[in-house]
Amino acid sequence: MRIKRVAAIAAVGALSFAMTACGSDETGSGGSGATGIVGKAESQKKLVVGVKADQPGLGLQTGSQYEGFDIEIAKIIAKGLGVEESGIEWKTTTTPNREPFIQQGTVDLVVATYTINDERKQKINFAGPYFIAGQDLLVKADSTIAGPEQLDGKTVCSVSASTPAKRIQSDYPKAKLQQFDSYSKCLPLLANGQVDAVTTDDIILAGYAAQSQYAGKFKVVGKTFSEEPYGIGLKKDDKAGCEKVNEILKAAASDGTYKAAWDKTLGSSGKAAPELDTTKLTNCGSV
Amino acid sequence: MDVFTDPTNIDAYVSGFLWILKLTGASAVCALLLGVLLAAMRVSPVPVLRGFGTAWVNIFRNTPLTLVIFFCYFGLYSTLGLSLADDLNLNNFWLGVVGLSVYTAAFVCEAIRSGINTVPTGQAEAARAIGLSFAQTLRIVVLPQATRAVVAPFGSILIALCKNATIVGTIGLIEASTVMKDLINSYGNAVIPIFLVFAGTFAAFLIPTGYFFGWLANRLAVKR
Amino acid sequence: MSTSSVLYDHPGPRAKIRNTVLSVVLGVGVVGLLWWIYSKFDQAGQWEARLWEPFTEPATWTQFILPGLWATLKAAAVGMVLSLAFGLVFAVGRLSDRWWISVPAGAVVEFFRAVPLLLMIFFVFYGVPFLIKGPVSAFWAVVIGLTLYNGSVLAEAFRAGIRSVPGGQSEAAYAVGLRKSQVMRLILIPQAARAMLPIIVSQLVVLLKDTALGYIVAYPELLQRGVNDLSANYGNIIAAAMVAAAIYIITNSLLTALAGWLDRRTGTRRARRPRQNRTVAADPTVAEPQG
User: Measured between CB atoms, which of B124, B184, B203 is closest to C111?
Assistant: First the structure.
């Protein structure tokens, strides 16, 4: 009867969606295995890189493209491993799912304002750091807050379970912490005065403050109260890959590609490219 | 299994579920009141009230709760400046209650309307025949019979409300699902026990509630 | 709504005046409230053209909103098919005569009806990979979570539907000599399915709304792409949320209208069941609410 036929066609249609979804969502995953990213890059000429999609200047998804400093660094690393830009598959990651993505093989590398810390080192390996940021505060242009000590009783906004949020909770417990899943939710609150400050790494804050819609409204306090070394995340046991990435970073520091990456993205804010201190690169977990 | 013996984790677990219970309780009361009001509006003789009620129900039944809570925070609080408490958590709590109530009230209203439909028309006709007004008809004849028929849907609405309370976590309230997410991210190797504990707690509350409402519905069912 | 016109008399002259006065007063009140909201939003600069301009550019639609909507519909469609299968299997399982089938089936259905969808999506996304030693894509995390929850709701609805088929049907089937599974397959399920059609489509509306929870595991559906990502680019989060809300309302209203149309079509094709179906639970308008 009509209903059965319609239902059957709908079921077939939905199942074929499922098949295509199966196919398209599972490509590029589960590849690194024991050979690591070096092996995968050589054999498949492809890499899956996890990046941020909502941080202007560092990792922003503008439509179908990703743009930002992290993206440029990832391209440099991929090139060093022999993978062209067209062979990179970009995957959006959020703050809490970076480690699970690496551990499960959903991505091969993570270049997403990824702070190196001991807790994360237990689950994954880090190469780099390729940039040293610092936790800072974003306030309204006319605000009197000049540092985290003045946050007592004030409302601070950050992303849940991020390093900056945890630091506020542990070191400045008198501040009231409002948490969301993305910084773009914190910004309208800052503009309207419902929160007194937004906190995360200074370079991310600068990216937001520089957006045209917020031009002139905010300022970065400029007094960093922590050190956030940005690293490149890979699987814990991929020591060879980690060392190769460090080599690529060293080369980029000396042959000008690092500076070019900076100038192309964050350089538009007027800040000069920092020197990549190759003596501080990680030892990739070797004791 | 050190995740379960660490006292901060246990505190977080307990406080997370306390928030859920408080959200459920407060929202259930508000949603009930609001829902009855909406149902009365939808069956009233005044066209504007009917239109308002219908618009309300259609908007809130077709919008995801996530967006409703989002608007409570960013619309009511951030733009309209409606601050419901000084303390950050309490403010988020009350905003969550507002969002949950207006959303659930739409379903309560529809349940009550369906309940009114189960009352045989002869009852309302007899009430008109002896001269009862609209309000009296509702209050004395129709609603008492209707409410006995809606106990079962109310039970399922309450259960759904309790589960929806987890969505208030999106505006920063540290309730049970946020606590579970943090614990899973910190103790990656104990994911299954953590999930079973949290899911089990919800099940321990909600499965008996479901059976209770089923029993209550049977007891109160109007034997026609 | 036959009872509503019975609840009050046809308005006489005094009632008409009273109704008109009330209408005007309340109408003014509602308009006043809307105006106040509008001006407050204006104060906060929410109506600035700059915030709404992105929606006039086709790029916004083709790169953020439409892909997000497509992802939402995809997850909802696959979730619906799998939920139907799940629901049917577990409904029949619960009605089985063998206790070693009906008790576990009952336990599974009760469990998944009691666990919040958010918890299930988290668990499938972050927890299951530890079991299968491989990644779970956000799409499957959302779909599996939706299937388990909505499948359980549908299982209960199917069970109620199968039990509501007049007893005489199955008695006659047994008298003719059919076995339990044939009775179920040939007699009960087809009749129950036709009656359950409105509930199934209203569960589809619920499914569509529940896909919004996918943004928590970064599944690029409408909320994630159309609100989070879009506002990261343009800083217009409230405007984006309003547009997203409008899209959801329109889509879900269309689906509900489809449900009503289907109900009317299947109803008039056979002898209408007596309308004395006085149980509220069968009414499709009270499908379980979910976020």
Answer: B203
